[in-house]
Task: structure prediction
Amino acid sequence: MKNKIYSTCSEAVADIPDGAVIMVGGFGHAVDKPQNLIKALRDQGARDLTLIMNGAGVSGSLGIGSLGGVPFIDEEILIVNKQVKKAVCSVPASLVMSKPRAFEKQYLAGEVELEYVPQGTLVERIRAAGAGIGAFYTPTGAGTLIEEGKEKRVLDGKEMLLEYALHADYALIRAYRADTMGNLIYRGIMRSFNAVMAPAAKTVVVEVEDIVEAGEIDPEIVVTPGIFIDRIVAAPGEGE
Result:
């Protein structure tokens, strides 16, 4: 069996090329983001990236914020470093209007592209990719700016928009524990976006707090089967 264990996050992201489409897991909190992989990708330097994620960085300057005094890192460090060409996300703006983040500033300056997707639609487009579904109809966004340029039909008396599946070259995700075959379990909010992204990318890299031998995780609690996971790295520290 192919060895999926990598010694460092740097090794796990070393081959990501310029122009790659990358899903980045996490809802928006410190504990559910692949912080160490994000930092390693910043240091690796790949550019012209398309990021598929929930939010385009809502932490402090340089993408380094804090939660309860504990520093954490998010996607904004890639944006600040001018590595991002386009963001596909549902939260592109700062949660505080008077404090715009790097993505907002770059977008208004015409330096990055944005594909805004309502959050539920974003999750379903990612899930569709993993399930082999090419596209689907949803009423979300019908009659709003979201429908611009999209095919629209009336189904069951409702206007529906055609939305296409979102695929990626790589997914960077975080889980609580993995075995050496890549079977994953999550803890709390880690399940949001991380689990749904795993089947939707060609190469999936996961950072975990703990790696155990195959057979040590009860099959009944496995959320992401190892068949979807390509690389595993132990990264228990926050943003180390």
